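Memo to structure team: turn this sequence into structure tokens by end of day. - J.P.
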Amino acid sequence: MGLTAAGIGSGLDVESMISQMVALQKQPLKQLQTKASSIDTKISTVGTLKSLMSTLKDSAKKLTNSSAWQLTTAASSNAAVAVKVTGTASPGASEVSVQQLARSQSLASKSFNPGENFDEGVLTISLGGNDTPISVTDGMTLDQLAAAINQKAGKSGVTASVLKDENGQRLVMRSKESGTANAFTVSVDGGNANLAALAYGGAELDPDGKPKTVMANGGVVQLAQNAKTTVNGIEVESSTNEFKQVLPGLSFTVSQVTQASAPTVVSVVSDTEGIKKNLQSFMDAYNALNGKLSDLTKYDAESKTAGAMQGDSTIVSLTSGLRGVLSGSLGGINLSDLGIQMAKGGKLEFGSSASDKAKLESMLQDPAKLAQMFSAEGEEGKPQTQGLAVRMYEFADKMLAFDTGLFDTKTKSLTALKKDNGKAQDRVNDQAALFEQRMRAQYTALDKKMGQYSGLSAYMSQQVSQWSKG
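Reply from structure team:
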């Protein structure tokens, strides 16, 4: 279709007239577009609320576990014994004395002169019932033998290095792990006297029953040994300097021998600050969601603007349900008994009065009561028997349920409204296009008629002019 410009024949500004009439036809679009923007805002808002509810659910989940109320800290009276909490440890004190530290076995050969080497043979390292043969080639040096041993260290459990001093150089073999279970022996087959000097059959004791530190061939051995401690009068050994299963919920690491007359005291106390921190995290998560809900449903009289979800029954119901979870008590104990107050707008905070502070400190000293208040599983169908954190977790879980939960249901509803809004906009645009098409057709026909009339008028004027001349 060629370009047309209505109004040429009639001389009227038809394009402007059509444009204005089409604009009137499209006027409903403004309201629909404003509504669409509002729906987009609400969909985004529901997503934000869902995220905040998820955070609250996670925070509540943490408090449903009774271990959250059994937090403890451990301390040691001597740096020789470092202690840490690894599980559920009961408050109390234990005495630890250190008689011996764990160490790896180390075997240093006799001193070799520079340039000495080995003849072809086999050196076998035996550790824990596992034999690892090392091939020794003719002319191999100490450095080369150390490298060959290290290539099989993963299998043998023994590493090697060359120690050089003013007397020459020694091959040093050392077990990778400490403890008597990692002691090793060395046997040789073939080779020369230098290779034979590396053989070691095991611990050698002197006449007094003490291990020898110097071997007959000039080598030096450091025997493997376990760490030995006495815990509350009971002798305990470990292949490493760390004791993991001796004290329930604790591990301790020894770094030096202590005097028997001055044992180290390891003490365990309730971690009230840790418990308070868990409570604060729960309150922060609740306050973030509650505050957002309040902002979305309030009316600002000063700016005369309403929150994005004001009057929305779904959001009002959510706010009511959320606060309802906190309103219940368990065994006659509620949040105020912890010194936690609900301030204006529903915000939770630790009370600042002396009475509230005393209540909080008292409850922090009774973890069992706190656990019952927050973590009690209760009876099915009887929410009043459930702990506060359990009730909050179940409430949040229901709201967040995939497809059937409040948030997904609300999002689907808003998405449907957005789709209908789009269809309504399409209808307005389609109707405006048809209207424009009809107007252009009518004005085109009018232009054609007006053009014909204009031509006839010109012809008649010409004839009249000719008659007047005659």
